[in-house]
Amino acid sequence: MKRIGILGLGGVGGYFGGLLAKAYYKSDDVELIFIARGETKKVIAESGLKIITDDSETIVHPNLVSNDPAEIGELDYLICATKTYDIEESLLSLQKCIMLKTTILPLYNGVDAPERIQKIFPENEVLQGCVYIISMIFSPGTIRKIGFYEKLFFGSKTASATKLNELQEIFQKAKIESYLVDNIEETVWEKFIFISALASVTSYLNQNIGEILNDPKAKEIYVELLKEIELVAKAKGLKLPDDIVNQTILKLEKSPKEATSSMHRDYLAGNKIEATSLTKFVVEEGLKYGVKTPLYEKISNVLLS
């Protein structure tokens, strides 16, 4: 029996955790634990987690929903999908559940999570991962997914093939479109280029995807951000496609026009935003590698002022 914890039941953790819960409820192979508190915990414990897509509604139940480490117990896998500003606090609260055997898969918006997690748990296997999906919390215990595009990528340069293949098999049996890739750092950075520029421009201009694409000046800002972050990635020695800027613009053009970034949604709701990991991080990496990022710096100063 493999015990899997899902930390963070927002658009990413709630949706993919929901697919795992649906597949493995009352299974002899996998026990799924939703790590939640407050109203979310109460709703899921009483009536399950609801997932709404464009053409369906599904209610799923984990084996356990809790935020009590004593109740959660030892974990074989921990999938993390909180906000990046909650990484340290949320993981330290689960120290008693994270054993040497526990493999941690971060599915955050930023790219700095594995390094930050490794500092807390230096002996643990920390994978790299990212997802492409448009989904969000509709209400406590309810996740709304827009569109049909959903992909999960993960991998590691150090983890054993046995461990990686085991997790891939768990995902695939749950009908998650997951890809175990060798060049995971490049894959994660391709996603980061997409989400960093999008989160920065939507929050800075207070516009959604359709508005950015239909406003020539807004689109120009978005493209300039892509060019700056591409220079940073290349300075780091990452082998990205030569046409990464055009590829990323095409991804945006294929996205639902009414959608926006999760950081922009948080901004609109008056919540704390992930500008440190998604915007300021690019400025800091630029300084580290001698790359100027004036537009990122300008937007970072506005968003974090």
Describe the overall structure.
The protein has 305 residues and is an alpha/beta fold. It has two domains: 2-182, 3-Layer(aba) Sandwich (Rossmann fold), CATH 3.40.50; 186-303, N-(1-d-carboxylethyl)-l-norvaline Dehydrogenase, domain 2 (Orthogonal Bundle), CATH 1.10.1040. It is 48% helix and 23% strand. The chain has 13 helices and eleven strands. The strands form two sheets. A six-stranded parallel β-sheet has the order 5-2-1-6-7-8. Strand 10, helix 6 and strand 11 form a beta-alpha-beta unit. Helix 7 crosses helix 12 (275-289). One of its GO terms (molecular function) is 2-dehydropantoate 2-reductase activity. It catalyses: (R)-pantoate + NADP(+) = 2-dehydropantoate + NADPH + H(+). Keywords: NADP, Oxidoreductase, Pantothenate biosynthesis. This is 2-dehydropantoate 2-reductase.
The N- and C-terminal alpha carbons lie at a distance of 48 Å
Coarse structural class: alpha/beta
Q: Helical content, roughly?
A: 40-55%
> Which architecture of the largest domain would the CATH scheme give at its second level?
3-Layer(aba) Sandwich
User: Overall 3D geometry?
Assistant: globular
CATH homologous superfamily (4th level) name of the largest domain: NAD(P)-binding Rossmann-like Domain
Number of strands: 11
Radius of gyration from the alpha-carbon trace, in angstroms: 19 Å
Series of H and E elements: EHEHEEEHEHEHEEEHEHHHHHHH
Number of domains: 2
The CATH C-level name of the largest domain is Alpha Beta
Determine the number of helices (DSSP H or I, runs of at least 4 residues).
Answer: 13
Strand content: 15-25%
Largest sheet: 6 strands, parallel
From the 3D structure, determine the CATH topology of the largest domain: Rossmann fold
Strand sequence of the main sheet, in spatial order?
A: 5-2-1-6-7-8
Uncertain residue ranges: none
State mean pLDDT (0 to 100 scale): 96
EC number: 1.1.1.169
Domain Ketopantoate reductase C-terminal: 183-303
Catalytic activity: (R)-pantoate + NADP(+) = 2-dehydropantoate + NADPH + H(+)
Pathway: Cofactor biosynthesis; (R)-pantothenate biosynthesis; (R)-pantoate from 3-methyl-2-oxobutanoate: step 2/2
